[in-house]
Amino acid sequence: MRTKHDVFQQLRDSGVVAVLRGVDADTLIEITDALLAGGVTGIELTADTPGIAGMVEELDSTFGDEIAVGVGTVLDSETARTVMLSGADFVVSPSLHEDVIDTCNRYGTLVAPGIMTPTEAITGYEAGADLLKVFPASSLGPGHLGAIKGPLGQIPLMPTGGVSPDNAGDYIEAGAECVGAGGALVDYEAAARGDFEIITETAKEFRAVIDDART
C-alpha cells in the first residue's frame, strides 16, 4: 500500500490533478494515457460516475504507481471506504466532512476536503486533512488563496474550479502545492473523436506554466 507521503509527493510533482467528471469508460484508459504523456500523473474520478469502483480498479491495474488515482465528490464515510477498497490513492470532497477525514485517516488514505475560508482551512487541517481543496477557486481567485497562506503557511492548498493554463501559475505563485483542473484540461469532444493528442498538449501546457511558476 502506498503511503500518504508518497501520494502527496506525486500530486505535488504532477502539479495538476486532472478531474475527470463523468468520463466515458470506453475512453478512460486513452485519456489517462494522454494525460500521462503530457506529464500529469494525478487523476481524479468523481464518485457520481456510474461504475466508479470498476474504473478505479482498471486504472490501478493498468498504470500501477505511474499515476495516483483519486476519487472526488465524496460526501460521506461510506463512499470514502468503498472507493478506498477499490484502490483509490486519495479522496477528495467539495466541502468539509469530518467523518470522511476520520475514515481516510483510519485506513491511511490521503484526504483533501473542500474549503473556502481560513476558518474552514484550519478546521479541516486540525481534523487531519492532508491537503485542502480551495473550491470553487474561481470565485475569489489566486489573491484569496495567497491571503489564506499568509497566516496559515503550514497548510497545503489545492485550488480547483476555474483553473486554466492562464491562471494556474498565479495559484502556484500564491502558494498552492498543486491545482485541480477539469474542463480546461480534458477535452471530451476531442476524446470522443479519438484526438487524444489535444489532451496531451494541454497537459504539457499546464505543466510548463506550473514549472515556470516554481522556478
Automatic annotation (TrEMBL):
Pathway: Carbohydrate acid metabolism. Keywords: Carbohydrate metabolism, Lyase. It holds the Pfam family Aldolase. InterPro entries: Aldlse_KDPG_KHG, Aldolase_TIM. It comes from the Archaea. CDD domains: KDPG_aldolase. SUPFAM superfamilies: Aldolase. GO terms for molecular function: lyase activity. Belongs to the KHG/KDPG aldolase family. PANTHER family: 2-DEHYDRO-3-DEOXY-6-PHOSPHOGALACTONATE ALDOLASE-RELATED, 2-KETO-3-DEOXY-6-PHOSPHOGLUCONATE ALDOLASE. Homotrimer. This is 2-dehydro-3-deoxyphosphogluconate aldolase. It comes from Halonotius aquaticus.
